Amino acid sequence: MWIRIRFVVDGATADAWTDALLEAGAASVDTSDADADSEAECALFGEPGEPPPQSAWPRTRITALVARETSNAADGRPTGRADNDESRVRSLLEQAAAIVAQPVPVAIEREAIADEDWVQATQRQFSAFAVGRRLWVTPSWHASTQPAPDGRVAIVLDPGLAFGTGSHPTTRLCLEWLDEHLQAGESVIDYGCGSGILAIAAARLGARCVTGIDIDPQALIAAERNAADNGVSIVLHSSSDTMPEAADIVLANILANPLRVLAPLLETLVAPGGHLVLAGLLERQADEIARCYPGIALRAWRSLDGWTCLAGTRPR
After folding, report:
1. What is the pLDDT, as a whole number, of residue 64?
2. Does 192 score more than 60 pLDDT?
């Protein structure tokens, strides 16, 4: 049994609090953006053209797991567990606060967490789902129990080190665009391929040549493995390699600043008459990014949960 505690600290002290909680006896500590899903949400990624990112969000939510006291009653029942839990949490926080030379946070959430199979618990968060008219995305552990319905193409993909399981709105928007627009025999470049999900979807939908490009070597490894698991062939390149020939469709599901910096390159990767699809953008960023691509008239194609997908065609 565990106690989960949560509180918010200033980003400047987040790393110190994390180290102090572990030193004081917390079983695990993780951090997240306290302003996630709001206008103040802040991305912490090493985007090209930007200074090195900070290690924490301006307002960082810290979550720590603390082991509960085991039973000490003769019949196996816990004795005074609530009081013991409170004392245990208070002691841990006071020790951590002394280490970081900060007061104990006032607003602290506490929740009892039962022991369970954490692998199964994680897997339950990911279920098979349909995208558009033709696609079916499923984790491997659901592939046999939730097969693709008739007429849909299955993509088997597990969460891993690389971004892209299909569940995030930006990835889903790109999958929907491919489902509605990709024609068999077209060539596709997936710039910032991550897990390879978009490249795999393109190949499964009939693209004749699919290239995945990423800056992260781990992403290329994940994309290669996922492509093999799906029985498709993808040409993979590091972003530092020589760029491939222009393609009929270029997808870039990354972030606003890389899309701004990479605009000249991405335009040249689109063949005359080809399509450019950009995602990873909040709705408020769409117009600004579209103006960075003067050679292609980009328009907001579709939005989902505050995210927008831009699409446009390069003149012949």
Report:
1. 95
2. yes
C-alpha torsion 282→129→187→309, nearest 10: -10
* Angstrom distance (rounded) from CA 244 to CA 12: 43
What order of strands is seen across the sheet that includes strand 28-33? 28-33, 59-67, 2-10, 109-113
Instruction: Choose among 169, 167, 162, 168: nearest CA to 192.
Output: 162
Give the span between the Cα atoms of 118 and 100, in whole angstroms. Answer: 31
C-alpha–C-alpha distance, residues 155 and 297, integer Å: 31
Q: Which two tokens stand for residue 193?
A: 């391929």
What 3-state DSSP class applies to 248? strand
pLDDT at residue 61 above 70? Answer: yes
Which of 18-27, 29-38, 232-241 is predicted least confidently? 29-38
Query: CB within 8 A of 5, min separation 6: which ones?
Result: 63, 64, 66, 89, 93, 108, 109, 110, 111
CA 276 – CA 250 distance, rounded (Å): 5
Name 155's Cβ contacts closer than 8 Å, sequence gap at least 6.
135, 136, 137, 138, 166, 197, 200, 201, 204, 230
Q: Is the pTM of this model over 0.85?
A: no
How far is 136 from 127, CA to CA, in rounded Å? 11
Beta-strand ranges (E) seen in the chain are: 2-10, 28-33, 59-67, 109-113, 129-131, 135-138, 153-156, 187-191, 209-214, 235-238, 247-253, 270-282, 299-304, 307-313
The angle at the Cα of 49, spanning 44 to 54, to the nearest 5 degrees, equals 30
The residue type of 75 is D
Q: Is 60 exceeded by the pLDDT of residue 199?
A: yes
Per-residue pLDDT, 272: 97
CA distance 279 to 266: 13
Q: Cα separation of 226 and 9, whole Å?
A: 38
Structure tokens at 125: 């968060």
